[in-house]
Amino acid sequence: MSDIIQLLPDHVANQIAAGEVVQRPASVVKELLENAIDAGATIIKLLVKDAGKTLVQVIDNGCGMSNTDARMSFERHATSKINKAEDLFNLQTKGFRGEALASIAAIAHVELKTKQESDEIGTQIIIEGSKVIHQDPVATPTGTSIAVKNLFYNIPARRNFLKSDTVETRHIIDEMQRIALAHPSITFFMYHNDNEVYHLPASNLKKRIIAIFGKKTNEKLVPIHEETELLTIDGFVAKPEFAKKKRGEQFFFVNNRFIKSAYLNHAVKMAFEGLISNAHHPTYFLFLNVPTDSIDINIHPTKTEIKFDNEQSLYAIIRATVKHSLGQYNVAPILDFNRDSSMDTPYKYKDIKPSKEPSVKVDRSFNPFKSQDTPSWESLYTGIENNPTSTEIEHIESSPETSLFTSDAEVSNAKTQQLHNKYVVSAIKSGMVFIHQARAHQRILYEEFLTKMTVGEAVSQTLLFPIKLQFDSSDLMLLKNLQEDLESSGFQFDGISDENIVIKGIPSQIEESQLSRIFEDLIAAEKEEIPDTSFSHIDYMAKTLAKSTAIRVGQSLNNKEQEELVDSLFSCKEPNTSPFGQACFTTLTLEEIDNRL
Ligand code: ADP
Ligand code: MG
What we know:
The protein contains 17 helices and 22 strands. By secondary structure, the protein is an alpha+beta fold.
């Protein structure tokens, strides 16, 4: 049989490649605007006709091209921006693939006029479906003008696939806005069917946002700024009262390139937690700057998705920074920072008086990523001053006082009593002790989990039927990161896919029925600002597991359970407080009782 493999002609290959780069007129707008920016233009004009179906033209005052370069620019993989693979990791330009012009020229009628400053005369090139029709000298100002007409004229299927003019125009405006926001120092004009849509003079970011979204925006903006080793964040968020029902103005730029990231969007949303309802979406314009070698923008042809080296830390920093700024600008008067404050300083029990938290508590200096004093493992268990230690609590004995709390039906020689399904009460040598059952149990479980997870001797019970839990993909991503720690605490998985997690073994302390709650709590905790050390992660998990599995207020306990609770609490290393810093018990001395009588 004869050979059948042949190379595709260039214009066919270009048409195929074009499908990746150019989905709709807005893709052409994006590519041409980016080229103008890469060319160092300070004034850029965008002209659009019929939602870009008839014309997309970009005129810039950038560096222009030589006669030869003008011709070369339409070749596939022709680029002036990189020349070796390593350059990909240190990109300073928007483009780098050298595909855009070749792709566009394959599926439209293109007219290029360009001139360099140093040249007297410029070059004009007319290309139709990859075929050069003309290349002539032309009188034209320094810079480049590229007109793209009749997009998809030779691919009717594509052309028919385009949406209404309203929809396609919306896409074009989206691209225009993204680029204009990322480059406030460049002047932009946009015309649609000869009507001016934008005239955006060179300015700063705040003025650019106002120029695009209207004067009213001015009062809405809260500035954001944070510098850490991993990244710097700048930009604005809109105050919570301006959050939208529809997902509207949400802009993330990484190294000045617009990106979409459901994950990072979630970080911002979580910073607004408690300030806006779940049905609302915060408005934000956030610019992240990260070292170019910590991202990979090469994973998607149209480059709106990128891969970060340390996405989890970025999530935490973004969330903390936005939250902090909202607090600082006093737009968050009733923020509940309770949870954070207890989570942030888990081991400073000495300093925590179980007093009431003030209702507004914004830790302005809090930054989980600046150096933090991570406590040593041993310091976890240092004693607590000014508090009764377990030795002061005498062996529990039956006494007349306790029987006061006994209902007639119960046996009166019980060592402990339950009060209102909330406290376990017991006589001690000096008087009485009131133990908060929920907090005490949290403390007991927390220490158990922590020890097992650290020492790695968790006991796992295998489930007869593996349990499948569904979460959205960003939540599953968080769980995936916890997989190892979860396994060391006694969980066994059959896999974590894009849609669900299959659990086949669980720690011996917990029950199947608690699983979905535990995982929801774990995800919620993971979305808090967890300092990025493996210790803090284990600690968080131990706390979360303890919290979601502990006995609750309202639960009735039999005598055996009450006694176990008391005994276990006082064999804890730090029985005084719950893992969240709340007092586990209080005592009433005989003297105090005497004084009252
Ligand atoms: P890329 O931007 O990935 O390099 P393009 O196909 O978009 O690929 O452009 C190819 C080359 O044409 C660019 O590398 C650049 O040298 C040149 N070029 C394109 N547009 C312009 C412009 N507006 N001004 C100056 N040079 C341009
Ligand atoms: Mg380009």
